[in-house]
Write a structure and sequence with these properties.
This protein is mainly alpha-helical and 497 residues long. It has 20 helices and 2 strands. The chain has a two-stranded antiparallel ribbon. Helix 15 (331-351) runs parallel beside helix 17 (381-408). The protein starts with 33 loop residues before the first strand and ends in a 15-residue tail after the last helix.
């Protein structure tokens, strides 16, 4: 069973088809990268496995690290308030009760409202241009935090930060689907997304170092924003001039490699490679009820994801450590989340299933929250600390594999970017819930917040299993109708129109 379902856009017939490259026909070359032959009007292609491995290695070395660093800064600039709070941000800005939660919540409103528009702009003008511009914008917002004097100023900057970060992750997902086959995507996206876990760990280490500053014209937590904001802005200039528009136009590829890159996408990613954006056609994705189920799962994912990302320092703080040690002790769980993400993503690509691993992630989160809420943390510190690892295991993996799951099942590029640009921000909108269930009055136990987060995890687990089982039965129905068993790899995506 490949990727759980053949496609949202799959044709009525499940007959096996030979690959076509539509307007662009591949030519033979001396190194044997691609050999073509005409048969009954269609183009058959034989791809040299060694040439394909060499091509993917180029993408892995030239594209993936840049995107990972960009997302690392994105994650740092979004989540650094939690570290700053432990160093006295509320006292410096004279925040009243509830205002910190408002500051966290306001980020998510523009994040959701502007994401579809920026996603469309990314598809129209190219992620290689829009992503660096977004990076420059959110880096500037981070740097300007150093000048904030009160609640109003920080709220305004968080609003613009939400706008500038809104479509970043959806566009990166779409961008990677233009370089990698469906069976290659999960582990690459996991490596990229691991940057968020590493960012959270690095943020704790950076905060640990910065908060040792005792001299200077600013309070020590402001230096955190100076460092992160400045580095983000500098790297955005590099990314703007470095990133290629697509795999088939990359300057670092030879013409034969460009042809091979185009062919790979035509048979195992997109129905039409580099297709122009059609708004009406792209929004037809919402005629499929499975798209609405995906959005419901995104909502269930959002609460655990944002709860852990925003409040892990406060959760770890209940273990009784000092401010400096609390930030330091957030490092290991975040690294653990990155490792678990990579393990599940590689396993998912290997067996070519998605939904069991998404469900497993939800289960980890639910159990972690239940254990932490149900034990005597002060007297069972080791068990409680292990529970924080389960929390990060469960939020990292579903956030990647869920997005890979439905992107694998959508061959139309416009529909793919539209659903991703709505689904991912919708999950992040749940940060409004997370930032308001972790109330100071419930500290240090945060029982209502932990119970709510566990409940969302349990519902997400259930919905994922239901959708996955439906896809299994639907594939079996299609096989019976066709009179033979057909795998997704048997149908080139160029036929899925």
């Amino acid at each position: 069973m490949d990727f759980d379902k053949r496609s949202h856009d799959s044709p009525e017939s499940d007959d096996k088809h030979s690959a076509t490259t539509n307007e662009k026909i591949l030519s033979a070359n001396e190194s044997g990268h691609v050999v073509t032959a005409e048969e009954d009007g269609s183009t058959m292609a034989i791809v040299d496995p060694a040439a394909e491995r060499a091509l993917t290695r180029k993408f892995d070395l030239r594209i993936l690290p840049v995107l990972a660093i960009m997302y690392l800064f994105n994650s740092l600039d979004k989540s650094n308030l939690g570290n700053a709070k432990t160093a006295g941000l509320e006292k410096t800005l004279r925040l009243k009760d509830g205002q910190y939660n408002t500051i966290l919540s306001v980020f998510f409103v523009p994040y959701v409202l502007t994401a579809p528009f920026l996603g469309i702009l990314g598809k129209k003008y190219g992620p290689n241009r829009v992503l660096p511009l977004m990076m420059f914008a959110f880096g500037s917002c981070t740097l300007l935090v150093t000048a904030v004097k009160d609640f109003g100023g920080l709220v305004a900057l968080r609003w613009f930060l939400g706008m500038s970060e809104s479509a970043f992750f959806p566009l990166v997902i779409y961008y990677q689907t233009t370089f990698y086959r469906r069976g290659e995507l999960a582990r690459r996206l996991a490596i990229f997304y691991a940057a968020q876990s590493i960012a959270s760990a690095f943020s704790g280490l950076l905060a640990f170092g910065v908060f040792q500053i005792r001299t200077g014209s600013m309070v020590n937590w402001r230096y955190l924003f100076v460092i992160e904001g400045t580095l983000t802005i500098l790297f955005s200039f590099f990314a703007f001039f470095y990133l290629p528009q697509s795999a088939s136009t990359a300057r670092f590829l030879s013409q034969s490699e460009k042809d091979l890159a185009f062919y790979r996408m035509q048979v195992d990613s997109s129905s039409v490679v580099n297709e122009k954006f059609d708004l009406k056609e792209s929004f037809k994705i919402f005629k499929h009820w499975t798209s609405w189920m995906i959005l419901a799962i995104e909502i269930c994912l959002g609460v655990p994801l944002q709860s852990v990302q925003l409040f892990l320092p406060q959760i770890v703080g209940r273990l009784g450590y000092s401010t400096v040690k609390t930030n330091l002790y957030t490092v290991a769980p975040n690294i653990g989340g990155a490792v678990m993400l990579l393990l599940l993503a590689f396993a998912s690509d290997h067996i070519r299933w998605r939904f069991p691993f998404v469900a497993l992630g939800f289960l980890f989160t639910c159990l972690g929250m239940v254990v932490y809420a149900g034990i005597d943390v002060e007297n069972q510190v080791k068990v409680a600390y292990c529970a924080t690892f389960m929390m990060t295991w469960g939020t990292s993996a579903p956030s990647v594999l869920l997005d890979v799951w439905y992107n694998n099942n959508i061959a139309h590029e416009g529909r793919r970017v539209v659903l991703t640009s709505i689904g991912v921000p919708l999950a992040n909108l749940m940060g409004v819930v997370s930032s308001n269930i972790f109330q100071n009055k419930d500290a240090p136990k945060y029982i209502p917040a932990l119970a709510t987060t566990a409940a969302f995890g349990a519902v997400g687990f259930t919905l994922t299993l239901l959708l996955g089982v439906y896809m299994m039965f639907d594939n079996a129905r299609r096989d019976r109708k066709a009179g033979k068993k057909v795998q997704v790899r048997d149908i080139p995506t160029g036929k899925l129109k």
